Amino acid sequence: MRSILLLLLLAQQLVAQTDFSDYHWQQFHLLPQVEAVTETEKAIWWSTTDYLVCYDKESTDIEIGINPFTNGETLTNAKFWSDEDGTLHLLNRDQMAILIDGEWEVEQINTFNGVFTASEILYRIDDNTYLMRGENAHFMQWQPGSNPSTVPSLGTLAPWFVHEATWDGEQERIWITAIPDFAEVGFIEGGSFTEVPVPSGLDRIYELHTAPDGGIWLLASNYVLRYDDQDWIAQSLTGNWNQWELQLSFSSEGNALITTPLEKLILQPSDQTFEITDLTVDLQSVSFESPCLLMNTDEVWFIDDRQKAISTWRANEGVIRKGSSAWLPIDGNLRSMSQDTEGRIWITDAVDTYFFSGRQWWPAKTIYPNFPDSVRQLVFTQDCSPIVLTGSDPFGFSGDTRVRWYRGGNWVALPPPIPSANFRNLVSGIFLDDNDNLWTTNSFSGGLSVWSGGAWQTLDVTNFFPTPAFVRAVAVDEDNRQYIAADNALFIRSGQDYQRYPYEQFDASTTNNNLYRSIRFSPEGNLWIGHDKEVLKVSKDGRGEKIPFFSATLDPLPNNSIFNIFPFSDNEVWILYANDATAYFDGLEWTHFNTDNSGLLSNMVRRIEKDQQGRYWFSSHIGISVLIPPTTTTTINQAPVKAATMRAVPNPACCQIQVSWLQEERARVRLALFDSQGRHLRSLLDQILLPGEMDIMVDRRNLPAGTYFIQRITDDQRDSYPIIWK
Length: 726
Fold this sequence. Notes:
Elements: H1 2-13, E1 24-30, E2 36-39, E3 43-47, E4 51-56, E5 62-66, E6 79-82, E7 88-92, E8 95-100, E9 103-108, E10 118-126, E11 129-134, E12 140-142, E13 149-150, E14 162-168, E15 173-178, E16 185-189, E17 192-195, E18 205-210, E19 216-220, E20 223-228, E21 231-236, E22 247-250, E23 256-259, E24 265-270, E25 273-278, E26 292-296, E27 299-304, E28 309-314, E29 318-321, E30 327-328, E31 336-339, E32 345-348, E33 353-357, E34 360-363, E35 375-380, E36 386-390, E37 402-407, E38 410-414, E39 429-432, E40 438-441, E41 448-452, E42 455-459, E43 471-476, E44 482-486, E45 490-494, E46 497-500, E47 516-521, E48 527-531, E49 534-538, E50 544-546, E51 562-569, E52 572-577, E53 582-585, E54 590-593, E55 607-610, E56 616-620, E57 623-628, E58 646-649, E59 657-663, E60 667-675, E61 680-689, E62 692-698, E63 706-713, E64 718-725
């Protein structure tokens, strides 16, 4: 007996305790509205509402940092500014952060008469004095540790009229402009202000700049002007633009670069006249909400809405993607995350659906034409056919929820399980069991239905619940018995018979405050249950046990804490619970994860998936965090493809395959699909491509299982790559 106990103890110790210290994190944030952008010698910086983003020019890596300010305000009003030595500043109302040796140091800006709120740094007079524009008192000077004060010697120009300022190093003058409505320009020199008249007909001045060669430039709604010692040289601009549509910057050669909105054109000066250069960009791939991030050295930086990455446009080179994207393609609240049988991760927001394959996020319509909008939930059958629950109302109170199934290349709308306009009968959730039976639940009436034989079978579960209850989850075992978890009870249904699951073996409470929120079967066939604040396990022989939960420092949890449970195996169980984050059980111990000790974007994790490469995907309302094992690449399939070779993921596949290659030079490329007998099936691509990493989706289109070949033909090369559909 003692030997048996020793063997059991040894076996328990051999359960592999996961050491997550060797894992690393990657994050995908929601695609944000860009607030401010600037460039330093080594990086491009921009801010969103909550994050600072840095694009390293040498490594092309994108790093997302947190808000450096301590007052808890968002970065909506943040503005970048660089002084003459390149030191980067970030101003946000009553605080200023300075980037020193890679770290942000924050200075507090005291108020002026209790009303001053800084909105922009205009110039630094000396090492410790800044000229600033504020929301209430427009032109002020400020020294760290002191209160802002008004700027003297502005002549007739009121300090609250000042709009912009720049430094003319050759003449040692501070040039300023009034707010656009007044079209006044002048400079401060030697303690006095001198107004410089502008040409007649110029009504609104939007931007003031000092060019690299020292010249002063103005950008107005109808002119661009350069000050030449004693007078202005003006060039009229065609088009009716406003201050939000025109931007002015300078190339490394000293030329002024003026852009209208990105989808229109670029004006670039040669001598004192302007040449019009067409901007060749796929208009469908550009986000018009914040299309232009930055213009520098004859480049235009923008967010590529198709690739969901930072890209650039340069004359004679076209559009080139810059580095990997750390942004999710959706710009709203992340509604759901799921995984198909090919291992691809899918996400939805209030409108769009995307999936991750290879190196990027792709629109769902790429492989499933006419993919529905407003998807609330998405599941996949074993043959990779998607089923969606749609509804514009995220809370399900409206009567427009629908269940649609993609079959034979078309979307089939299933009839409502309960044909009634009453919102209490609307579908609130969809589930697929291991036999591809589709289950629907209703959170308001407790209705539960299953699609079988081309019709709905509805289970009126409220007849046997103690009170009308929410159905939280459904699981089906290998004997086709249905386990139904509801507010106050867990039921087993076999045929038409229902049996309440015995609480006694768990010694669990039966009070109305305790909920069964989640039930799932592990691959070993054991049932895992999230009940109230306990994790329960039922083995295949019917024996139940409580799993000792957490450490003394984390107990006790409040009632109804366990929200969801994900048993990827009996020794690999994740749970989501209230007021904190997630926890992992390896068969012996729990490991606790939250934003303090991990790379989770948010503690409010909604779902966890494990893909075929052993990576854990955590979704929250603000984005996705990925926990990557040491045996996987450091980023999500971001290793560049090699020149003159192709690769395909997934391969073999059930449905669509993504083919990627590195285009080394500008050339015409033709791709075609052939079967194993060498017969041409269809053309995939025939166009001139610019240098860069290329991706294309290859659709199966009802082809039989087998081996096929992708043939690539260029002017001096012909090669092929095998793909397998299973």
